[in-house]
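Technical note accompanying the year-one report. For the benefit of new consortium partners, we illustrate the data format agreed upon in the data management plan: each record pairs a sequence with a structure-token string. No post-processing was applied to the example shown here.
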Amino acid sequence: MKEKILFIVNPISGHHDKSGFPSIVEKWIDKDKYDHTIQLTEYGGHATALTQQAIKDDYDIIVAVGGDGTINEVATNMIGARQTFAIVPYGSGNGLARHLHLPLKPKKVITEVINKGVKSKIDTVTMNGVPYISIAGVGFDAIIADYFAKDPNRGFKTYFKLITEKYFKFKPEKYHLILDDKEAIDCEPLFVSFANSNQFGFNAAVSPHASLNDGLIDVCIFKKPNLLAVPYVAERLMTQHIDKTHFVEIHKAGKIKVLREKEDIANIDGEAIMMPKDVLIEIKPLSLNILLPNKE
């Protein structure tokens, strides 16, 4: 019996042309396995409405076609549902896709993952009830997420430009972290990331050994390096060895309370969202069904 699969396509995410995507699907999808439908998003938040309707319409697989924002929007609306989530990455950073070792070419995703992939389950996380899949954070990375979202130019060059512009003026704040209602940590870091997956995107691995199915969040406390150490830290970040430096301290927990001096923005999967002074981050183990490459 064929499965019903819906592709939700954001035509403008990542500034990549997706006009040829329907013909790629038509040519390469396994028509003996699937009855497929393609729908384009037409406004902000439309992916949410399309995902919720697809669940009501009893689709079997819902595919996000776009950048990290589109992927997060579709995925977070599928948490706890019976449907299986899948990704065709078309963004600039492609953080979750890279963590999952997905092909970055649409044809290869269709032929290798959609047609031949395996269904699995991954953890999701909430920050004060707001769900996310990959990484949330407070501090400097939240400020960069805010500026990056407002910048008309995307890609790594823009991301790097913003970091270099804002870095030296940034003054770290004080945080009191409570891990699993037991361990308490006081810190004044550059930023703190609450990582479910291993990277921000662009292969910048904030927590190289983070796992999407271990029931734990990697709490990554980053010290602010001095000017001379910045190139070294950047190189370690991009080569997935940041955990081998003294600039990051990584803990694991299923629940984290963050007590701050004032309300401020947080970075939730690349989106800057205002959060109150006190923040609660909690894991939801194996709460999202997902289609992954078959490693056999």
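Partners are asked to follow this layout when depositing records. The longest helix spans residues 46-56.
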